[in-house]
């Protein structure tokens, strides 16, 4: 019997617990409905009274609108105006006076001073504010200059990705030049470096995205080839300079023909000499015998042979140029 009473008590407690859970759930749903109703009311009510303006300002600041201090870059000014406009549109703030008031609160420094001067000559309409702002910080003459820059745009020293980003930024100032996919793709392709453009042109790609993607791949392949070439060149220099098993000796060109080197311990490769041809007076990167390495592949054997033929003949016994050790008159 006591056990049965205990079970009845447990059942009663569980029922009370279930009832409490259901009550809390119903209360939560009710509060959520109230919040949704308040949000809908805020978004649909006219923004005319003071309390609505304060609420709208709080929502505007909560989205962290950017500031503008009058930077000379017109693209920064344009971006600022676009972002502020997007926030105002998102909050459905349509009243001109509120849109202008919220926007000018984000002006700082020189831009704030400009507005203090202009506010009495510009009406409170949003369209009038944006027109005055763009005339000041993004005038038509600047747009014309950006259009001209786009017309002359080529890759030069930019990477493909940097070139593509600049191409995209400037193309909107000459939209008729890229009004369809074919025009856009061909103009981008023409501006690529020759070493990148030629392999891409051979593929006869039609879409802009395909050309950009292939140009990036070609650029990376050329970069890897150049890295391998430079690594092999350094290795070959080391092999040639040490092929005799010891450091050779050399005299300067002005002392050629003398019977004996004035400095027998002098290294073959003097400071300031070219590591490509061995001559003094220029460095390897300025050597007239240096071939362009970009995109070039050749066997190590032929490269070493050609390089060795270009070097001056040096005697490893006396250090003089013009004969080999086996022909040296000082050997006796």
TrEMBL record:
Domain (CCHC-type): residue spans on this chain: 274-288, 315-330
Stored InterPro entries: Retrotrans_gag_dom, RTL1-rel, Znf_CCHC, Znf_CCHC_sf
Presence of keyword Zinc: yes
PROSITE patterns from the UniProt entry: ZF_CCHC
Alphabetized GO MF terms: nucleic acid binding; zinc ion binding
Domain of life: Eukaryota
Keywords for this protein: Metal-binding, Zinc, Zinc-finger
Name of this protein: CCHC-type domain-containing protein
Organism annotation: Davidia involucrata (Dove tree)
Taxon lineage: Eukaryota, Viridiplantae, Streptophyta, Embryophyta, Tracheophyta
């Amino acid at each position: 019997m006591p056990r049965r009473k205990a079970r009845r008590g447990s059942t009663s407690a569980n029922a009370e617990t279930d009832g409490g859970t259901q009550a809390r759930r119903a209360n939560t749903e009710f509060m959520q409905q109230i919040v949704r109703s308040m949000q809908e009311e805020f978004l649909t009510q006219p923004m005319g009274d003071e309390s609505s303006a304060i609420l709208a300002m709080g929502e505007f600041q909560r989205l962290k609108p950017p500031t503008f201090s009058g930077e000379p870059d017109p693209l920064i000014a344009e971006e600022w105006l676009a972002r502020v406009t997007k926030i105002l549109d998102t909050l459905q703030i349509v009243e001109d006076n509120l849109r202008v008031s919220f926007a000018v609160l984000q002006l700082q420094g020189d831009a704030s001073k400009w507005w203090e001067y202009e506010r009495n000559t510009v009406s409170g309409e949003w369209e009038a504010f944006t027109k005055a702002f763009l005339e000041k910080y993004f005038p038509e003459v600047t747009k014309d200059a950006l259009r001209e820059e786009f017309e002359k745009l080529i890759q030069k020293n930019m990477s493909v990705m940097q070139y593509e980003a600049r191409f995209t930024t400037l193309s909107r100032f000459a939209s008729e030049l890229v009004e369809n996919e074919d025009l856009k793709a061909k103009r981008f392709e023409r501006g690529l470096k020759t070493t990148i453009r030629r392999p891409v042109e051979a593929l006869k790609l039609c879409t802009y995205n395909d050309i950009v993607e292939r140009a990036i791949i070609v650029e990376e392949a050329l970069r890897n080839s150049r890295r391998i070439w430079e690594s092999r060149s350094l290795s070959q220099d080391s092999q040639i300079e040490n092929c005799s098993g010891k450091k050779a000796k050399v005299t300067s060109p002005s002392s050629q023909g003398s019977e004996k080197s004035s400095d027998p311990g002098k290294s073959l490769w003097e400071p300031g000499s070219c590591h490509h041809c061995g001559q003094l007076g220029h460095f390897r990167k300025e050597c007239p015998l240096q071939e362009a390495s970009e995109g070039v592949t050749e066997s190590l054997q032929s490269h070493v042979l050609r390089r060795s033929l270009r070097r001056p003949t040096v005697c490893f016994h006396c250090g003089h140029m013009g004969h080999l050790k086996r022909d040296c008159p000082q050997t006796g």
